[in-house]
Amino acid sequence: MKIGVAGTGRMGLGMARALQRADFDVIGFDVRPTAEFGDFADWMQPDPAAFASERDVILSVVRDVDQTEDLLFRDQAILTAANNLKYLVICSTLSPRYLAELSTRLPNNLHVIDAPMSGAQIAADEARLSFMLGGAQADLDALEPMFRAMGPKLHRMGGPGAGMTAKVLNNFVAACGVAGTRQVIEWAN
Asked: E strands of the chain, at which residues?
């Protein structure tokens, strides 16, 4: 399995390194200069077409919908060169509605997995991420060794979109907890 990690920032670089430590064939792509990636620079591919051309699996770990659109269709347009791509794994936390719409614009033979993760940069660096997975069971089975290389907690939430929905709800609960705590502290003061 040839894996590409697109978006090797705070989380993506740690994920790529974890895959490399687990002996996966992995390269990274980012819009930043290759020299910024230190000891991983030799495994960075600065050309988006070359990055996508021989990968079976691409993990998208970019920031938001706009960067996802740039990566897939606009500025980098990796899908135009992704001739061997079988799995597109969306690890960014995006709207479940956007994910459903995105799926309608992708080739029918491309399996889309939503795999938003939980954990800070240290968890990515130490391969301790938790993933909320949405996708067909056979696809999740095929990719499980890859996910396990990046973290021990894999939560299969259901079909396509279920992982993203779970992550958005998880974030909502966390935000409510923070807001509630702040209100209680304000009242206490």
From this structure: 2-6, 25-29, 57-60, 87-90, 111-114, 117-118, 130-134, 153-158
